């Protein structure tokens, strides 16, 4: 419980908590699964009480990148089992439960230096600073676009991977299945820009891999906002079945999020009526987040 509470706090409070990285491994909150996407695959690696790390593997080059490696031992175990070369760290934001494993991962690396990408100089081990929205870089045979989505933190980055016909996006604590992150360092306007102007514009088929296993509580909140939304109800039933089997809820898709996620639906009158903010989607975003925070 302490870890769960700690992981939700701003880094100013938790920056001296790296000793927790040394704690023994406990039972994972979800099973490890692998999702195939033609040119690449994504292995879902559970960490802490509800975090997700992701091992992105380019099938043609066997090059691997890890997203938010808070549990380096789990990462190296997956790298060795998959027989791939880890070259890149994609850090979504500086919070300890996402970036807190960077130093240990770097120090335990026996290959060439890891490239650590992020949008915040508070990220440990950072080698490539992304301070401009939409920066592209090549990873093996794949193209990765860095989407700056400040709000949860000022330097938050989502990573959009284009692998030909298959697209995925790693959204950290900006977009969750059925929800969004708290506005720790930003505003409702920024979250509106992130969710509606940036992430909603990705292809509907884009697979969404988020930073935490919060799906059930998020979907229950969605039903509180839109009790007659059958897409939310169906998704909740599906997720509850998965969780009983310890299967992770991820990935979602951008198209599904537009149907089930109230924070992606702030331009819909059915959501605006609940917050009494008809005609003002940014105020709807603010009121929704306040409502979620206080439930």
TrEMBL record:
GO terms for biological process: methylglyoxal catabolic process to D-lactate via S-lactoyl-glutathione; RNA 3'-end processing. Its cofactor is Zn(2+). Its EC number is 3.1.2.6. Keywords: Hydrolase, Metal-binding, Zinc. Residues 50-212 form the Metallo-beta-lactamase domain. GO terms for molecular function: hydroxyacylglutathione hydrolase activity; metal ion binding. Pfam families: HAGH_C (PF16123), Lactamase_B (PF00753). InterPro entries: Clx_II_MBL, HAGH_C, Hydroxyacylglutathione_Hdrlase, Metallo-B-lactamas, RibonucZ/Hydroxyglut_hydro. It catalyses: an S-(2-hydroxyacyl)glutathione + H2O = a 2-hydroxy carboxylate + glutathione + H(+). CDD domains: hydroxyacylglutathione_hydrolase_MBL-fold. Pathway: Secondary metabolite metabolism; methylglyoxal degradation; (R)-lactate from methylglyoxal: step 2/2. HAMAP family: Glyoxalase_2. Belongs to the metallo-beta-lactamase superfamily. Glyoxalase II family. This is hydroxyacylglutathione hydrolase. It comes from Acyrthosiphon pisum.
């Amino acid at each position: 419980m302490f870890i769960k509470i700690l992981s939700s706090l701003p880094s100013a409070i938790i920056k001296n908590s790296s000793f927790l990285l040394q704690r023994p491994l406990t039972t994972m909150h979800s099973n490890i699964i692998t999702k195939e996407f033609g040119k690449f695959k994504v292995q879902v690696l559970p960490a802490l009480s509800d975090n997700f790390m992701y091992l992105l593997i380019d099938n043609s080059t066997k090059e691997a990148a890890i997203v938010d490696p808070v549990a380096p031992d789990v990462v190296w175990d997956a790298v060795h089992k998959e027989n791939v070369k880890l070259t890149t760290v994609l850090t979504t934001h500086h919070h300890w439960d996402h970036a807190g494993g960077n130093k240990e991962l770097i120090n335990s690396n026996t290959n060439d230096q890891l490239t650590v990408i992020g949008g915040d100089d508070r990220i440990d081990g950072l080698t490539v600073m992304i301070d401009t929205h939409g920066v592209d870089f090549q990873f093996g045979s794949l193209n990765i676009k860095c989407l700056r989505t400040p709000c949860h933190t000022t330097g938050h980055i989502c990573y959009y991977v284009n692998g030909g016909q298959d697209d995925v996006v790693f959204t950290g604590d900006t977009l969750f299945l059925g929800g969004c992150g708290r506005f720790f360092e930003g505003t409702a306007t920024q979250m509106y820009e992130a969710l509606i102007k940036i992430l909603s514009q990705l292809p509907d088929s884009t697979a969404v891999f988020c930073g935490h296993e919060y799906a059930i509580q998020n979907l229950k909140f969605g039903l509180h906002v839109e009790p007659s939304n059958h897409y939310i109800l169906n998704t909740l039933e599906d997720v509850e079945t998965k969780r009983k089997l310890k299967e992770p809820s991820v990935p979602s898709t951008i198209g599904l999020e537009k149907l089930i996620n109230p924070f992606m639906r702030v331009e819909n009158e059915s959501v605006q009526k609940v917050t009494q903010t008809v005609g003002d989607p940014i105020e709807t975003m603010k009121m929704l987040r306040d409502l979620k925070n206080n439930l």
